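ESCALATION

Customer reports they have been waiting on this structure for their group meeting. Please prioritize. Original submission:
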Amino acid sequence: MSPAPQPARRAGKRARILLVDDHPMVRERLAEVINLEPDLVVCGEAEDRRQALAAIAAQKPDLAIIDLTLKDSDGLELIKDIRLRWPNVRMLVISMHDESLYAERVIRAGARGYVTKQEATRNILLAIRRVLSGNIYLNEKVCAHIISRLVDRPDPVAATPTEVLADRELQVFEMTGRGLSTNEIADRLHIATKTVETYRGRIREKLNLKDSSELRQHAISWAQRH
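Update from on-call: job pushed to the front of the queue and completed.
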């Protein structure tokens, strides 16, 4: 992947980083690690979309580190908002979600990298510096998966859920496969139960599934492989 333009940051200045995560302990740990680095500094924190947008407007960070699951909001939608309002702000996702499911989606949304919270500290710092330099950070496994899918693109009829479902639809499909109820999915995504059912209807149509029972079975089988 070709590098993007270099960030507008003066030599010798510490890169300003905003942490967006709804777990205070995660933010605290990341801040401790980042602030020990001579070229990096945390300039602010946020736990949801509203706080994140306000913090970017006030602090003007070079990089926003964003989790996909936030308090009362969705990380993917926040990434799209930031890309639209502040195209010069780099974004790196650090999440518990399976990178094979969401890495490509966050790149399409506007982030420049994806790393899981289970990664070693050195890899997280590598990802931060890679994104700040204008490059994209994905681990080798994810890169190989994306390249393989592009080269060996399957027949549309046999397309996988990760290829045909929209962001929200994939989230509902994944949670259905993990056994969450309609109410639990609605709570996790901060949407109405009726909206969850609407997404399920779209999923059935796109995956050519006849009813809710077949959707659940298909989702469970798919989740077990991921």
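Sent to customer with the following note: The radius of gyration is 18 Å.
Escalation resolved.
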